[in-house]
Write a structure and sequence with these properties.
The chain is mainly alpha-helical. The protein folds into two domains: 47 residues, no CATH class; 202 residues, Serine Threonine Protein Phosphatase 5, Tetratricopeptide repeat. Helix 4 packs parallel to helix 6 and helix 10 runs parallel beside helix 12.
Length: 272
């Protein structure tokens, strides 16, 4: 952090630097400090979509869904900014009211920007997740099946892309393909081991926690969540916010763990 502080002193209006400083604070779960940096960015670039979406993601992580909703309502991400759109989708999922975002996602995916590459398949995973939370299981299955067909070709070109592999693990989970989901998780862990990258390396561990929670492996899910508790890292979803007690409470992916007393500790913030 001393590096960022010195760099900011030398170049206080460098928005890229301020954004990196904020992301570092997010990884450390130092959310108030991250928000201050994002506010400095907004003083320089009022209304910046990505910065507002990042502030909303912090509000989600703190369990303040009304504040997140207000921030996200003010932005209209362009087609080439999937991260902000994914943050809006995650908000709708956390609120358990995905009905309004589904048409927006369908519109974006009707004519996806070719430059998005595998992110088109990632967006379609989010569509399936929103449809599943909305209770439309058949539509979710169709979306996830299409997402898999969109993601798989990129794996041949990008066999070490742990984000792509993580997307395939989540899609396989949605389709009920347990063997494939865990195989992809192992592949992602091999591509970015935590010993090699302490910040991004835990991302596949979060994917493991999510997949295990959904696929009848509560012990593996709880163990992964416990491991993530004590370490700073980039989160697995849109804005790379690490899991917090509030997100564990709100995220539907962890619903099947809610009767486990070990999960109650993790979701209460009492675990150390």
């Amino acid at each position: 952090m001393a590096y960022f502080q010195e760099a900011e002193r030398l170049d206080p209006r460098n928005v890229n630097l301020l954004g990196q400083y904020a992301q570092c604070c997010i990884e450390l779960r130092r959310f108030p400090e991250a928000l201050r940096k994002f506010d400095q960015v907004l003083d320089i670039m009022p209304g910046d979509v990505d910065t507002l979406a990042a502030k909303a993601a912090i509000a989600q992580a703190e369990g303040d869904l009304p504040r997140a909703s207000a921030l996200l309502a003010s932005i209209h991400p362009p087609a080439d900014d999937p991260q902000a759109l994914e943050t809006q989708v995650y908000q709708a999922i956390l609120e358990r009211r995905p009905g309004q975002i589904i048409p927006r996602l369908k519109e974006t995916l009707a004519k996806p920007d070719p430059a998005l590459g595998y992110i088109t398949g990632e967006l379609r995973f989010y569509l399936g997740w929103a449809q599943e939370v909305a209770g439309d299981h058949a539509a979710a299955q169709a979306s996830w099946s299409q997402a898999r067909s969109e993601l798989e070709p990129f794996l041949k070109e990008q066999p070490e892309n742990f984000s792509l592999i993580g997307d395939l693990a989540l899609v396989s989970m949605g389709l009920g393909d347990k063997a494939a989901a865990f195989k992809f998780i192992e592949q992602a862990m091999a591509a970015i081991p935590i010993e090699k990258d302490a910040v991004a390396g835990p991302i596949p561990i979060e994917i493991l926690a999510r997949v295990a929670a959904q696929m009848g492996e509560p012990d593996r899910g709880i163990a992964a969540l416990q491991k993530l508790l004590a370490i700073p890292y980039d989160g697995a979803l849109a804005q790379n916010v690490p899991l917090t007690p509030a997100l564990r409470r709100l995220d539907p992916m962890f619903d099947l763990l809610r009767n486990d007393p070990r999960f109650h500790v993790l979701a209460s913030g009492a675990a150390k």
